[in-house]
Specification:
The protein is mostly helical. The protein is about 70% helix and about 0% strand.
Length: about 70
């Protein structure tokens, strides 16, 4: 698995978890989905992602998006 694929998997899990928690607990959990959306936009422009830096240090292969 590459860092790109793991990043997309992680983002998808966070958004789905946010939707589930919004439905079950409180609408305030939508802020988690909004935070992930802002981070995805920021990462697409700058190429900077702390999660990818951690994954690289753990030994995951770099992908095409985050070399």
């Amino acid at each position: 698995m590459t860092t790109d694929r793991f990043f997309m998997l992680f983002a998808g899990i966070v958004v789905l978890l946010s939707a589930l928690l919004t439905w079950l607990a409180s609408p305030w959990w939508l802020l988690l989905a909004a935070f992930m959306g802002v981070h995805l936009i920021q990462a697409s422009f700058t190429g900077f992602c702390p999660l990818v830096m951690i994954l690289k240090s753990l030994g995951l292969r770099p992908g095409n998006i985050f070399p």
